[in-house]
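Incident log, structure service

09:12 report received: a user says their structure output differs between two submissions of the same chain.
09:20 pulled the input from the user's history:
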Amino acid sequence: MQIAILSDIHDNIWKLARALERIQQTDRMFCLGDLCSPFVLDILARGYDRPIDIVFGNNDADTYRITLKAHGYPHVTLHGEFFEITLDNRRFAVNHYDHLARALAASERYDVVCFGHNHQRETTRQGRTLLLNPGPIMGASFASGAPEDVPSTCAVYDTAAGEVRLIEV
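09:34 re-ran on a clean worker, output below:
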């Protein structure tokens, strides 16, 4: 199974459109939060017709309207701030925050822990667990305190091979 993993869209619908073009051959999507505006959910759901699992981030302020919109798309599931799922015998933990992701990985309950939030792509191992941050669709980082351009990226995780492919959009 090929799982598309996106995070930190922050209303950048132009980069999101490019990402959606690049992930059309995947089987499922994890969206790791910070869609921001409710209309982004419409773009995701109309641009990708396979299962979409979404967790909220710290910039999803209008969760009420995002939730209302999600009810109109049977292939979209909102999970609040965290969910876990087993696909092809691989256990995933999915949330928005990097500090929670590292604690989840330390538990060694999961094969893959997906997260966003810090706008820094990452594929590292903590024990037996893969930590996976696809980087921001938005194309900006705030690590230095001031905004700086970074590549707009997403990822595809292959459950059969256990491998990640980063995609620049």
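09:41 both user submissions now match this output. Likely a transient worker issue. Closing.
09:42 reviewer note: Helices lie at 13-22, 39-47, 63-70, 98-106. The longest strand covers residues 82-87.
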